[in-house]
Structures are given as C-alpha cells and as structure tokens.
TrEMBL record:
PROSITE patterns: QOR_ZETA_CRYSTAL. InterPro entries: ADH-like_C, ADH-like_N, ER, GroES-like_sf, NAD(P)-bd_dom_sf, QOR-like, Quin_OxRdtase/zeta-crystal_CS. The lineage of its organism: Bacteria, Pseudomonadati, Thermodesulfobacteriota, Desulfuromonadia, Geobacterales. GO terms for cellular component: cytosol. This is Quinone oxidoreductase. One of its GO terms (molecular function) is NADPH binding. Residues 11-321 form the Enoyl reductase (ER) domain. Gene3D superfamilies: Medium-chain alcohol dehydrogenases, catalytic domain, NAD(P)-binding Rossmann-like Domain.
Amino acid sequence: MSKAICFKEFGGPEVLGLCDVEVRSPGPGEALIRHEAVGVNFVDVYQRNGLYKVALPAVAGNEGAGVVEAVGEGVTLFKVGDRVAYAGALGSYCDKRTVAADRLVLIPDLVSFEQAAAMMLKGLTVQYLIRRTYRVQKGDTVLFHAAAGGVGLIACQWLKHLGARVIATAGSEEKCELARQHGADACLNYSTDNIVERVRELTGGEGVPVVYDGVGKDTFETSLRCLRPFGLLVSFGNASGPVPPVDLSILSQLGSLYLTRPTLNTYAARRADLEQMAAELFEVIASGAVKVEINQRYALQDAAQAHRDLEGRKTTGCTILLP
C-alpha cells in the first residue's frame, strides 16, 4: 500500500485527504517509483477544483522524483536504483506509484531529488514557452506575468541567460524585488501600476513581441494591449480563473495579434521531445545559469495547506511535498 492524497469530489483544499492506495506491480513498459519529493503546481489546483476535469476518485499531483524499485517487461531505459523524475502524470501525491517508464527521465548527479521534483513541470514549461512556443532571441523584450512564482523565477533567469530584456509583473513590491534579483530588468506591480502604460513607456510606445501569461482572467486583456503589431500572447495558465469567451476581432483591432494556449503534455508527447527538453533544462541548471528556489516544504499529509497557500498567493518560487 501507498500513502496518498486523494479527492473524491471537486472543490476547495478541504476535499484533499490522506488515503491508502494499492500499488500494483509494474506491467509492460512501466516502472515502480519510490518518491523522495513531490512537486506542487497550479495544475494540481485546477484538477482538484474541477476546472480541469479528471476521473474521480483521484490521487492529486502531477510531478515527482525518486528511485526506481522495479521495472516491467520491455523497459530498457531504466533499471532498479536509478534516480528519476517526471512531470505531467496525474497521481504523484503519494510515497510510491507505478508510472509509464517512457515519461521518466534520469536525474543528473548534480541535481537533487528535491530540485528535480520542484522543477520538472515548471522547468519543462519554461523550456517549451521560451524555446519553442516563441523562440526568444538575444535582444528580445518580453513580458512575463507572475514572475515571483515557481515558473516565473525560472523564466526570469533563463530569459536573462538568453540575453533577453525581461519586463516582469508581480503582486507586491516584495515579489517584484524577488523577480529583479532573478533577472528581471523591470518589475511592474499589477496591484498599483497601470501595466499597459508602463510597458509602452519601457518599449518606447512599441509594445512587446510576446507576453507569457499564466494568470488568466485578470490579465488577459492587459496582455493583449501590451503587444506590438503581430505580437503573440501565450496564455498558459489560469491562476486568477479561466479567461472568459473572447471575441476574436480584438486580435485584428489591436494589430493582427496571435493567441495560443499551449500545454506541456502536447509539447512533450513524443519521447524524443521530452528527452531534448529535459536535457536543455538540466543543462541550464547544472551550469548555474538557472537556480531552483524551493521556498516552501510541506509534509505529504499537509497537501491541503500547501494548496491554500498557493491559491492565497502566499508562496514564492517552488513548493514541494515530502512523503
């Protein structure tokens, strides 16, 4: 049996509870993992509250790192004792689980279990956002919302490493200072600043070629109005709630804009893409260009409190659970 955090209905953090789940032996193409650390992400919240529908009852969580304890028939990529991590597989809030082996990646020696658990989903998200959805080039000016969160702090550092000029947003001066410490050239406080006006000032009235928006409802129209003609809005999250229905004519009115709603699961669906993405992520971590900030640690049984703090915007950087 495995200790896990389950939910039987959609709702607030209170629906999360500790439960015992059966751990089956790995079948063909599968591996049994003993978790050393588990990541906490906003997608976990969306699945718990029903914004993203999952089959119930469910074990929460999508990201973890640990040790391979057994492998099924046909698994050649990994062996017992390997240090591995994964992202994008529902059911990670537990001490042991069986997963598809082709979703795992080996953890380099220079990366700890905690770092791997904290950064896989967030780091791979940043990788596809800035290297594939819009391939940021040296000299580009980009706007990145919620820059003091786990995704945002990784993004600020990686964007700076690429030679980009980073305009960040955050909800307080303390969070803005954190973003600046991690590479943001400017940070706007969306509680007090007029974001559109300030972005226009910082870009000589032109606007930016790309906005990365993981906030959703509260920032969507602002993000569009920060773009220059032919600019791209990358809407990749809903921290403030889902974006309401959109009249697409606004894209033409504001300068023939582009809008996309990407997901990690699509970008990492092929094994070759997952390996390439993970290799690039581990490279910037190992080089020191990007540091993973784990600012919150909770015991597995305290997952509900971790969700309360995440939704209450009381967290910065990355959050993990320890089984």
